Amino acid sequence: MAHHVSPSGREIFFSASELIVSKTDLKGRLTYANSVFCRVAGYRASQLIGQPHSIVRHPDMPRSVFRLLWDTIEDRREIFAFVKNMASNGDHYWVFAHVTPSFDAQGTMTGYHSNRRVPDRAVLETAIMPLYAEVLKIERAHANGKDAVAAGYKALADFVASQKVSYEELIFSLKSAA
């Protein structure tokens, strides 16, 4: 599916009582999207299934955040992250994502499962938006994509290290401080 959408600059919201759910195969291709995901992202399930999850990736998201996410889940661990997504019409929505690897009965990793909730607005505005803007600025200073992601990843790692906590501790301290 060709997907040439530009950001509209309009933010859309979903209810705090709702949960966006998706599942992917090991390559990140969608194998399931619940009705909330379809409605908020502006796609029918038939348009999403088989597409890369990055179909909802917003260009304001630092690529290094996704490197951290992929490195973590490919290492068979769960991750929590704040993500700005883009709907089919260019509108955007923020989520607090919990992404986990899925395993079969033999323990073989078979795909990934993501539950996304409404993020705390104060955390977004005071911590995440400024951090991601700075990391994106660092990434955009590099013409080479690999160099950009490496520089952004280092900036993220340096920020976490400066807080003297693990990534997980940082994410949950942000949630509890808001």
Automatic annotation (TrEMBL):
SUPFAM superfamilies: PYP-like sensor domain (PAS domain) (SSF55785). One of its GO terms (biological process) is regulation of DNA-templated transcription. Pfam families: PAS. InterPro entries: PAS, PAS-like_dom_sf, PAS_fold. Residues 25-76 form the PAS domain. SMART domains: PAS. This is PAS domain-containing protein. It comes from Bradyrhizobium sediminis. The lineage of its organism: Bacteria, Pseudomonadati, Pseudomonadota, Alphaproteobacteria, Hyphomicrobiales.
